[in-house]
Structures
1.
Amino acid sequence: MAGAGRVAVVTGAAAGIGRAIAERLAADGFRVAVLDVVDGAAEAAAKEIANAGGTAAGFRADVSDRAQVDAALAAVRAEFGPLSVVVANAAIALQQPFLEMTLDQWNHTLAVNLTGTFNAVHAAMPDLVAAGWGRVVLISSSSAQRGAPNMAHYAASKGGQLALTKALAMEFGRSGITVNTVAPSSIDTPSVQKKRDAGKMPSAEQMARFIPVGRTGTGADIAAAVAYLVADEASYITGQTISVNGGSFIG
Ligand SMILES: NC(=O)c1ccc[n+]([C@@H]2O[C@H](COP(=O)([O-])OP(=O)(O)OC[C@H]3O[C@@H](n4cnc5c(N)ncnc54)[C@H](O)[C@@H]3O)[C@@H](O)[C@H]2O)c1
């Protein structure tokens, strides 16, 4: 199996896209560490993955807090051994017009989405370097590629991930480590549904009219791209952004 017992950590994996990635990597034979900030949620998700036949364990950590990330990864190593794969997925996506955005809101978004990515990758990277093999996948967003009104902080944080991907790909290319980004768009997750219910987003049917393949995406669509990028056979792909968006925003 692709995972061959390797250890993968997925941040923000209790729900939504991260959860789908954790499920897919577990199905592919990885031992999966589920990290999430919500009390008990990572453990509950890991339990369900294990009940479905995978190997998974849950750890609570706020990715914006380096001490919590370090503690969680130490616990992962104690449970499963050294890490081979890091998927930096945890993020927040607040909506605020730019002129109403406070410095605190800006800093908080950057702290979770971009510094949180740094924390997870930086804390795990020594294991990958020591093994001479590793896969890093960042989950960015189409917002970084085309902009997003009322989400300047989010778009900027996601753009930072694209640049980080390229820098790390160059720095770690000779260490057997690839670094890539998946940029989703219009993926149905519980948090998206909440925004729909609050009238802050159009329905899936309305959105589908503007997506070339005629439907919104699923967590499994993103997980499939991640599963490919973390496989041995993807060793010649690094520094890239794979857009998983049903054909939206081509170019
Ligand atoms: N859903 C979409 O349409 C879409 C589109 C583009 C990009 N994305 C990106 O995909 C990723 C997942 O999105 P989603 O829709 O599944 O989001 P979501 O809100 O449904 O899930 C995010 C998960 O991350 C966790 N999380 C939040 N802050 C955290 C923190 N500080 N530390 C640890 N965990 C934290 C949450 O508890 C939650 O379980 C994000 O990076 C998001 O920017 C999503």
2.
Amino acid sequence: MLNFSRPTEPAGEDSLVWAFHGRNLVSELMGSQGAPIRLGNLQADFEKVKDLTSVGYLEGNPVYACMVETTQIDVMKYTSGNLFGLIGRTSQAHFDVIGRAYQLLNWERDHRHCGRCGTETVLADKGQSRHCEPCRLSVYPRLSPCVIVLVSRGDELLLAAGAGSNRRFYSCLAGFVEPGETCEQAVQREVMEEVGLEVDDIQYHGSQPWPFPGQLMLGFTAKWKSGEINIDPEEIDEALWCKPGNLPPVPPPFSIAGQLINSFLDAQNG
Ligand SMILES: [Zn+2]
């Protein structure tokens, strides 16, 4: 389990670090995929180790993240891949740290200077914010709340293939919460915009951090109230009412979409 307090002690060569090369996470071939790497190994094997920053404590040990630069990754020692590819291939504990590490690295890189006056910012508040001294502006890591909703009608559930997804899988509808909007209003608006249906009986289900790059997925269930499916082709390729036992490919159970679908199916069987 990750302790979110950010260590203040500097990393040493034995410190455990999650290293990113662009958007990809680097793993040692000898280790398991998604596992951290000792800082000394990274410093020996990569041309540049930069943006080193603390992430938290994992099982009591301080852990860190960094970016690495190299013209060519040594494929005899390392592999690299995007975060999506790690889903299901690394432990939940490691995936949680990797998601936090990636978000903190991006946040620190994007907020080195104050957005208001351009002065360099400094880490403050035990690493929870970046602060501009002249204008006393504090910037916190940006999370983007996103609703994801399983819409049902009797024993049927609504599944949709996103535009450009090649209909690889069919999932719940999702969208960002707009400024000034409640999550429930976002659910109603997204469902209306994407498939033209009115829903009610909106119930909170649970949440999941989704570090691609900084969403917080808030899961809901809702019941169909009125309307026929009328998709917005800019957002959705196809939307279907599906019966349990006759589903198209759906997202893996690791994802909140998979969990929403499974819990609907369990309730039908129960
Ligand atoms: Zn400023």
3.
Amino acid sequence: MPFADIIGHDRAKVLLRSAIVQDRLAHAYLFHGDDRIGKRLLAVRLAQALLCETLPADHAPEACGACRACRQVDAHTHPDFMMIEPDREQAHPQIKIELIRNIEHQVIYRPLIGDRKICLIDDADRMTIGAVNALLKTLEEPPDHSLFVLISSRPYVLPATIRSRCQALRLTAPAQTQVEAAVILKRELPPADAHFLAVLSDGQLGRALECNLEQARNSQKEFSIIFSAKGLQSFSTILATAETLAKADRALEAFDWLLRWLRDVLLLAVGAGSDHVLNVDQRTGMQALAERIDIDELLDLISDLEKMERQANRNLNLQMALETILLRVRHLLTPQHQAGASR
Ligand SMILES: [Zn+2]
């Protein structure tokens, strides 16, 4: 598949294409940017552009995506293409020195088929100190035919000595409209579902393409009932809901959906339009709520929820936290005059 297949990253594509055409590729690149925005895919496409066996006659740097070399790069079986990554099953995934040594040994030899040996190091910030030092030696005197692409969403973790030997390319998430267009094209979904997945994935294309739509829609429906005035009408319902969710280990999921719903209300309350609203189908109800809601109270609730999500791993009593939050949502939903009348 050619570069054109990649959504977004236009600046990076132009830069890499022209470097290939002018034969000015660096020996090492660092593709950095947020998680799951397509850094690795771009690196794979770069490798294919360099190793493709049937490049077009005009020498445009576009891989065919279909020849043996292109397919082998996709399958990580091309003899001139190496990829290493940490074992993500581990509690603390690391790239150990043995992996780098292995690459070091292979990269010295001339490429078997193409003109280059390409080595992709995914999550490069997971290298141990030993691995870093081994790689550094190779990067200091890289063989002419070698190309290293380091990928990282935490480039600041990489030592400056490594970073200074790589040409850094900062990649940013594609625009939400691009993500929606890609979801429509690749998953053949209607625009409403594409919008839903794009917003739900915070613009991360990889997530939007893999997300289980049916499951996400079911959760959306389920939580919209829980967070409705009816779902929150009595204390006993709230306590029961919090208990059920906490016991099913779904408290964090509840926080997440609640946060998204509150952010939707906030977007509508400040008149931001609905481009980034997730629960578009509940728009009428949310708009009515947005018009009578106490914005300060809403902002406090959002910021406390965000804090809770960050602290959730640290001994937070999730059931109690959920009870408290649901009671606050209930207060938020209660029209002020009613609150006054019931006093
Ligand atoms: Zn090809």
4.
Amino acid sequence: MEKRSDIIIHTKKMCKGYANGEIHQYVIKNMDIQIYNRDFTVFMGPSGSGKSTLLHVLSGMDKAGMGEVYFGNTDFTKYSEKQMTQFRRESCGFVFQQTYLINSMSLMDNVLISGLLIEKNKKKVVERGKKLFHDVGLTEKEWSKYPTQVSGGQIVRAGIVRALINNPKIVFADEPTGALDSVSGRAVLDILTSFNRAGQTIIMVTHDLTSALRGNRILYLKDGRISGECILEDYKDETEGRRDKVICFLEEMGW
Ligand SMILES: Nc1ncnc2c1ncn2[C@@H]1O[C@H](COP(=O)(O)OP(=O)(O)O)[C@@H](O)[C@H]1O
Ligand SMILES: [Mg+2]
């Protein structure tokens, strides 16, 4: 089994840009980065600094333009489209602000679609789904509803269940609380924190200080490069000292 401090993802001189007419400017520039197993890694940085782009490349949702991206010992930039899809389904879970649930299906059925891509035994998937819904605090009555019948917070929680249904090695979250009020946002953060405590590796992008405090490692992205790093104890609760340390770091970064 992988140990806590093992590197789970790393990149070598990774660049990523978007073709923009004749101009091709890299959004991510020559990045060498290591992400550790079981960490709750947080990326912060100004809007447009490339946080989502980086998340997409690290999760294999999008291809790097240059350089290498390793998952364990395998450089997945060499994968075919088909291998890539398989890798994402088996190893990655995604939580977005916008969850892309299918409105004509119940929350549970939305989760089952993802689960059945990997596990063919429906009973097993349903059992795991029920357990996860319980873990995120949704009752049977709630997970039987359609996305249009529940609150934004409940939708994001269903999105977390869907992200976790295939036992992913890593959960990627892009501004998961961005569209929520502070109470629902806190509930979602508590859920992510509890999964991380149970050993789940999480990589989260946020522009929100309260969310960032959940990480044990904050990386600051600026102009396509990592400009600083703040290491914290594992999150227990939101102490003043923790908040001050992160504010101080962010100010240093020019946040
Ligand atoms: N699909 C795309 N096509 C072209 N440009 C993009 C695309 N996605 C992002 N960008 C550009 O890349 C830069 C970084 O975007 P993004 O990674 O979304 O930043 P962040 O998540 O930090 O706000 C921005 O300048 C943005 O306009
Ligand atoms: Mg973004």
